[in-house]
Amino acid sequence: MAVPKKKTSKRRTRNRRAANTKISPIMLSKCPKCGEPKRIHVVCTNCGFYKDKKVLNIETKLDKKIKKEEKQSANGERE
Ligand SMILES: [Zn+2]
Predict the structure, then answer these.
(1) What is the pLDDT of residue 18?
(2) CB within 8 A of 23, min separation 6: which ones?
(3) Per-residue confidence at 11, pLDDT binned at 50, 70, 90?
(4) Which residues surround ligand 1, an ion (CB under 5 A)?
(5) Domain ranges across the chain
(6) If we measure between CA atoms, which residue out of 33, 28, 64, 35 comes closest to residue 49?
(7) Among residues 13, 39, 9, which one has the least CA distance to residue 24?
(8) 37-39 and 28-30: which strand pairing?
(9) pLDDT at 7
(10) How far does the centroid of ligand 1 lie from the alpha carbon of residue 4, in Å?
(11) Distance between Cα 68 and ligand 1 center (Å)
(12) How far is the CA of 34 from the centre of ligand 1 (A)?
C-alpha cells in the first residue's frame, strides 16, 4: 500500500481546500434616499435610512460642520 512520505502541512491542506471556495462579490445598490451606493438588505451608511424609515441617526457632514463651528464660537466666548 502506498504510504505518504511526509505529513501534509496545515498550509498545504488549507491552500488546497481554499482553492475550491469562491468569495462572492458584495452586492451593491443605489440608496433611494440619497443615491449613494449601499449594500442590499442593509441600512444605508450615508443617510441611515432603510425602506423609507430612519433607522440610524447619522450626522451628515454639514451637521458636523455646524456643530464644530458652534463649539468653536462657544469656546471663544468663554476665553
Ligand atoms: Zn442613503
Answers:
(1) 92
(2) none
(3) very high
(4) 31, 33-34, 44, 46-47
(5) 29-78
(6) 33
(7) 39
(8) antiparallel
(9) 96
(10) 57
(11) 23
(12) 4
